[in-house]
Amino acid sequence: MTRDDVTQLVHDAKRKSGKSWKDIAAAINPSVSPICITAALLGQMTLEKAEAEKAATLLGLPADAALLLAEIPYRGSIPSMPPTDPLIYRFYELVMVYGTTFKELIQEEFGDGIMSAIDFDMTMERQPDPKGDRVKLNMSGKFLSYKRY
Amino acid sequence: MTRDDVTQLVHDAKRKSGKSWKDIAAAINPSVSPICITAALLGQMTLEKAEAEKAATLLGLPADAALLLAEIPYRGSIPSMPPTDPLIYRFYELVMVYGTTFKELIQEEFGDGIMSAIDFDMTMERQPDPKGDRVKLNMSGKFLSYKRY
Amino acid sequence: MTRDDVTQLVHDAKRKSGKSWKDIAAAINPSVSPICITAALLGQMTLEKAEAEKAATLLGLPADAALLLAEIPYRGSIPSMPPTDPLIYRFYELVMVYGTTFKELIQEEFGDGIMSAIDFDMTMERQPDPKGDRVKLNMSGKFLSYKRY
Amino acid sequence: MTRDDVTQLVHDAKRKSGKSWKDIAAAINPSVSPICITAALLGQMTLEKAEAEKAATLLGLPADAALLLAEIPYRGSIPSMPPTDPLIYRFYELVMVYGTTFKELIQEEFGDGIMSAIDFDMTMERQPDPKGDRVKLNMSGKFLSYKRY
Amino acid sequence: MTRDDVTQLVHDAKRKSGKSWKDIAAAINPSVSPICITAALLGQMTLEKAEAEKAATLLGLPADAALLLAEIPYRGSIPSMPPTDPLIYRFYELVMVYGTTFKELIQEEFGDGIMSAIDFDMTMERQPDPKGDRVKLNMSGKFLSYKRY
Amino acid sequence: MTRDDVTQLVHDAKRKSGKSWKDIAAAINPSVSPICITAALLGQMTLEKAEAEKAATLLGLPADAALLLAEIPYRGSIPSMPPTDPLIYRFYELVMVYGTTFKELIQEEFGDGIMSAIDFDMTMERQPDPKGDRVKLNMSGKFLSYKRY
Amino acid sequence: MTRDDVTQLVHDAKRKSGKSWKDIAAAINPSVSPICITAALLGQMTLEKAEAEKAATLLGLPADAALLLAEIPYRGSIPSMPPTDPLIYRFYELVMVYGTTFKELIQEEFGDGIMSAIDFDMTMERQPDPKGDRVKLNMSGKFLSYKRY
Amino acid sequence: MTRDDVTQLVHDAKRKSGKSWKDIAAAINPSVSPICITAALLGQMTLEKAEAEKAATLLGLPADAALLLAEIPYRGSIPSMPPTDPLIYRFYELVMVYGTTFKELIQEEFGDGIMSAIDFDMTMERQPDPKGDRVKLNMSGKFLSYKRY
Amino acid sequence: MTRDDVTQLVHDAKRKSGKSWKDIAAAINPSVSPICITAALLGQMTLEKAEAEKAATLLGLPADAALLLAEIPYRGSIPSMPPTDPLIYRFYELVMVYGTTFKELIQEEFGDGIMSAIDFDMTMERQPDPKGDRVKLNMSGKFLSYKRY
Amino acid sequence: MTRDDVTQLVHDAKRKSGKSWKDIAAAINPSVSPICITAALLGQMTLEKAEAEKAATLLGLPADAALLLAEIPYRGSIPSMPPTDPLIYRFYELVMVYGTTFKELIQEEFGDGIMSAIDFDMTMERQPDPKGDRVKLNMSGKFLSYKRY
Fold first, then answer.
1. What would the pLDDT profile of I103-143 be if each residue is shown by its tens digit?
2. Which of residues 33-52 of B touch A (CB under 8 A)?
3. Closest Cβ opposite residue C120 in set B45, B119, B147
4. Residues C25 and C51 in one domain
5. Which residue of F42, F87, F139 is in closest CB contact with E137?
6. In this structure, is residue E105 part of a structural domain?
7. In CATH, what number is assigned to the domain containing residue G98?
8. C99 with C141, same domain?
9. C-alpha dihedral sign at J55, J61, J66, J71
10. Interface confidence: ipTM more than 0.95
């Protein structure tokens, strides 16, 4: 059994259960962001052992799947890059359009280094707007300075 | 003269002036986000005519450059994808790791559609943290529903 | 079961039934464009729950398939790009040949922004012509202005 | 001098003149679609000799450029595929999302063959809409049947 | 069942039967070129219903296969491009070496347009030669002029 | 000076002279196919020393160019593959669609081997046709058997 | 059954038998180079009917496999290029490093043409050396002159 | 000045001198293989200081070029892979067709390791043959065993 | 059975056993580096016959798997390059950032040649650090000089 | 002036000076690793202002170059990936062969996270060995744990 198999099993079980990711995530661990839990169920993050077992029970997954959900995955969720799906592509486009701007402004503020994609957190919420509601994403990553040695 | 030539001229002029993007942006138009202005100076957004002229004066750019800064650019700031620069690559990595999670959670909340990368705004700031300061990015994009017809 | 499996089941069922896409689409929902319905059956659009069930009944698809037809798909219908199939390639060629012309003329008329591929509709019809009938495609997409912020 | 040089000269001359594509096209030949003329000025179509000379006079291009504008170009206007520019990418996305639908519906109506991208014409206009104006594109291409022999 | 499955079934059946493509094609329809029939059996062309049934009987293919052989295929016979097989690669090489020569000489003779790959026919025969027999390919494609509009 | 420079010089000189490839080729050497001569002028074949000098005189090329036209070129005339130009792409498409058919029928007739793209010749002519004139290409390549050893 | 299936069966059978390629090749046909026979067993060359049957008996392959071993394969043995395996990559590297040198020296000696990869033979042997034994490869390919016509 | 500039200068000087690679190599250092010397002149190997100076004198290269010829180059002589030039492509094809055979037979003889492309030498000569002369290449590379540790 | 199947079996067995790579490696052969043994279990190195059998017993693998673990693999462990997994990507990034520095400094010290990736060994250990523990990798590869001949 | 121009100027100046990287680095700042300084001179790291000026004086670079050497570069030193140069390719190969082993063993020791390529240092030295001297590389990168949130 591979992690991709588990992701497929999760999709099948979720579809049949009619539950939302939000509810599934809350049931697995309400004190962790639903983004983290969902990403783990999609094969991109690691659940703790107890969470993985709760997930397996909740979704009716086989025992192997619980073990795999607690294992560090080989990351990379997009079938091929650039992403063909329009929702995901828009994020890719933002990197292409704003990439050099991010670089200039972050390094002007912090010096030579990067924003970590590991020591990183994120929230996502609906921002009501009379002209059409908006998706609001707040990202925060630790700045890491290039070490001189 | 191409837009890439203008971007190169901007870099040369900025380097010699010793000014920061923040100061340059504020001088061009303090009521517009420095992200927008910087992105325009890097060939990714459009300045208004008056802004472009102010930019040209400020940076000592030739008249042609002012015309080009007010022209809609052919967007795409990254020399080649995936980006080889580590700071920019981390954003690309976030798309690969969190892409399917974005898709599941945004569409669960909003239905079938996308977050616009056009009707979109963003802020970037330093988030002080005793364990090391963090880069904080807030993004907000209008949700666009797939039209049925 | 994946959405690709459903697409394959749809092709198999359609072939055996001898029905046309036009007839299938009309049976599923006559007030929605057959383009929309066909695209959904090919894994690119979402059917409403009742439509998905009608589709499943009509084509003899298993219950899972009905659930999947009402789920938002991971879009991207072409096995690999550029498309190897000549009919589809001609559209790709139009983008290569006319892409910059679209950009110049649309932005000259509307300003900086894009034609939405989400708030978008399309018709396709036969245009009789003594020198050989023609395919007529009418596309209409909302213009979205780049937001300044 | 290459056709790309001519395209660059056209962009430079147009920028300085302040004229629109529409006006330039009308001045070159008002009885031909501005799409055709603009595409030629962008290196994708061929002008007739007299048109090319009018274009060169109008835009102050050197004599070589007039010769080149009347020469059949090596087509392909996009610097690299997939297009990095959002406006053009949306058309590429339409091919990825609707490609198989085009194939199924056109071939269901016409039999085995393709829509020509050569014996092809197109109009583009603004479609006023209270919810936001729309880009309207009408395309028409001759259907070509696969020949059996 | 996919068209690729049918192609595989055809290869298996042909191998066991010991028949040649020439004989199979003649048995299916002697008045159509064996190139057309063979291409259809390899998933690149469409057989007529009666031909497909004859093919299925001749080769012992299941009923589904007959339906698929009469269906318009998603064309593209080469596993990946450039072709790794030397025989096919030589044709690819001819395009790379002679491509611009074809363009110059065909357009010098016919004006702006292309040689159709749809209204196209071809013969292949052995050309005896004392220095070693030669493969003779005669291709003929309708010239299509770029339409001005 | 590179061979690409020579090709560019040839294009410039031909454009100014108003001569056709056919006439230029005939003037250089009427007993060799204009396809060969044109291909050499486009950097894909080798002219003999006397021909190269005639070509240089005829087109007003510098002495270096004559030396280069008689030098064996690094072949490959297409800026990038797949070709973006529609005329050349149609040949590429023929390889994708008919590639496996070529392989099956040539090897059925000749055994294991290839059609040479080196010991190869070709003619191109206009085939008048009331339904629209056709491009006629006759190719002939020596069959080379795979050697067993 | 595909040729790849046969290659896999050959690997499985060889592994269980404990036999070497050298011994297998000698048993199939001692008067043909073990390189040829091994390449055929790996799906890159064609065995004669009697050899294929001997191979099938020797390795316990099913009857279909014998038929396939005598069929001309679709060549190309490397899963993807550039080769990821270090032994094979070194040959790829030799082409990158020495490719232009081969071209200059072979064409200086023989004129315009190529070394055939079809009318080609090769030996491989161990060359004892006190500083470490060496792999010795002798290749010989017929020179083919570009034909003028 | 880059090494590519030097390679271009070498080509220009050689062309004007009318000398062969063989003669140039012999004049630079007759006790080293002309393959080595030619490869160095093409930017793939390193000349010793005295050789580089002799080369510069012989070919009339500037002093910088002599320094560069004695510098270790960034190797990789082929403009893009796969090589578009037919002579070089045939070597690439040999790797694709015989790659796995090389691997099996070399490792069967020598164990786990590779043939070095660094401690490697080669000769190239004309092999007269009544059926057409042949190119004979003898390669010899030290076998390097994978180290266990 | 392929080597990839074995790697999958190893992962499944390890997961169920709850054992670490370190323990498994020590049980297979404590006098060989756990890096070597783990790499072999992941399909990149070769185990000796006795080790392979011990591995099969320890992990409950079928007899075929033991044979395959002692067979030289087709190397290349990354599903696709560049690696999508962040941990592995960082090593790829180091090559992109420091590649030319490695080249300059190694060749300045040792002359023209390479660091072998075959006669190569490596250790990996935890380096405690109050600011956060570090991964310490020590690599050592034999320097191989380019041979002149 | 771009950073690539500076790198080229550095190479030219170093070549003429006859100095080694080691000496240049020591002259610029003896208390920083020559790897860091060399990487900066090759456009991959940032020098401090005083160091950049010392570098410019030492190598006779223009004032602009000093400014650029103190600017954060757009990283990525390899012309194209995979690297064509054998010395650098061997590091790329190590990632392909050992990538999954690194992942398994680092994450087994440290948990879910990565080895930083930013808070990273490295030494390189000659390791004398009677069987041939070895290149010794010691790398140390901070382990960064994936943050849960």
1. 999 999 999 999 999 999 999 999 999 999 999 999 999 99
2. 34-35, 38-39, 42, 44
3. B147
4. yes
5. F139
6. yes
7. 3.30.1160.10
8. yes
9. negative
10. yes
